[in-house]
Structure formats: C-alpha cells, structure tokens
Write a structure and sequence with these properties.
The chain has 298 residues and is of the alpha+beta class. The chain is built from nine helices and ten strands. The longest helix is centred in the N-terminal third of the chain and has 35 residues. The protein starts with 7 loop residues before the first helix and ends in a 6-residue tail after the last strand. The N terminus is likely disordered.
Length: 298
Amino acid sequence: MLFQSKKPHFQHLKKKWTAQHRSLQNKLWDAHGQSLNWLAKNMPSRHLAAGALGGLLLLSAPAGFALAQPIATSSENITAGFDKNILLAEQLKKMVPSEMRNLSPQEESDISKTLSENFDLIVKPEIDGLKLNRTYGLIGGEQHLYRYPGDNLYKHADTTSDWAMYGDAGIAPGLGAWGYFTPSEAQFSEKDKMREKYYIAVQTFLAPGFAENVAKYRDFFKFRKMLLLNPQTGQAVVGVIGDSGPAEWTGKHLGGSPEVMQDLGLAGGPRKGAVLYFFIDDPKDIVPLGPIKVKGGN
C-alpha cells in the first residue's frame, strides 16, 4: 500500500540532517585535510594530538556523539566518527583531473585500484575487453522509469517521505533502452524495484566497437552493475545501467535516477556534477545496490 510509513517526517529530517552533517565534514576537511591526514598516519597513541583532532571531529559529529563515544587515542581510531568517504575524496584529488576530460589508461588503472581497495570490490574500467567511452564525466538528473505495464509515478513511492524526496522528478514519457524492467506487475520483484531505483543512463552507443557488435554490447550493458562516486565529497552509490543516453549535444555524459543523484549529493541546485563511474565485476550478483561506504566506514 502507498505511503505506509508511520514516521515519514522523521525520515525526511534524517536525510536533511545527514546532508548537513556531510557538508560540515566537507568544510572541516577542506580547511584541515592535510593536518588530519598527517595526524592519523604519524601520531599514534599521542593524547595531545588525538585530543586536538578529536575536538575538531566533534564539531562535525552528530548530537550526542561526544557523550556516546570516547575520544580516539590511536592511529586506528583517530578518525572514528568521521566519514571515511571524505578521506577517500581527499586521496582521489591527486588522481582525478580538474578539467572534464577522458582519463588515461594509467589514470583509470590507478583509480580503479584505489576504489577496489577502499570499497572491497572488484572495480574495473572494462570487463572482457568491453568498456564505455569514458569513466569520468558529467552526470545529470533523470526521471523515474516505467517498471512494468500499468506502472505510474505514484506507485514508485512507498512512503510520504519518498514522495517528498523524489516525487517531483516525474516519470519519463517513454521506456528505457531495454523496455520494462519486468513483463508485468505480478512478476515485479524487489530486485526489479532496486534496479529502477538505482539506474543510470550511459552513452552505450559511443562505446568502442558498439556499432559493429550491437547485440553483444546491448546484452553486456543491460543492468550491468557500476560504482559511481562524487570525487568532491566521496559519496558513492552502486547502480545498474538501465537506459542509454544522454545525447552528445547535451554536454552530459551520463544520467542518474533521482535516488542516485540524491546519494551522490547532486540532487540540488543544477542537478549535475562530475562523477567517476566504473564497472563492478560481480558475476554472482552479491553486491547490493544503493549508497555504499568505504570499508570500515560509518
């Protein structure tokens, strides 16, 4: 049944607070990133350094955090309570070019290795010799997609909080590149639901070799799992290729569902931004879709 949540306002406020918390951490890292990194690596078990760093971290921590958590006293937990995805973003600043261009093979190799290590996944720029036209580009917001015959925008929201967050994105007038996600509402599963929720549109038609092997590439790209990361904030999400586009003339290189854009921190303002996007080698389909944290992160 639509809108079943008994605490929709709490969920909506929680998402807004989480975004504000991340913004504060980003500002803290912009101002003190070099010092934080140095302290975490070079000052193990020194109470003075840990106390100073702990004080900075508590400025961006949730209410009640100081009472519930002891101040870190070792290099292993000196950044406890700090979003480790932000630490990853700082690490990637040295790897990701400031201008919007294609990454070189060496850059793709270095970045995919870093992402694999941080998320404990197998992240690759290509699989079985197949790849997209780029792995770093400008993403823009997309609408919801029809999931099965008879689907409509209202059915996409399980709660009033969902409707408040994503309802105004609307629904695309046509189907995605692979049609419906499932043949009928009776066959609609949680897996189908998550695929549409976290879908991306990529320029499959620009992939090297696509024109010569349309059927092969079409089958390869369909619901192919990918890791997307906002290099400015470290926010990351696992999604699937659910549509083809956008057109070259738009200036954008890929599109993201309303939920993808929200979890990348790009849902507000112009609803676009730079992202890294790499394949996840997951033949057993065990990596869940949705926002993802650096391993060991909060």
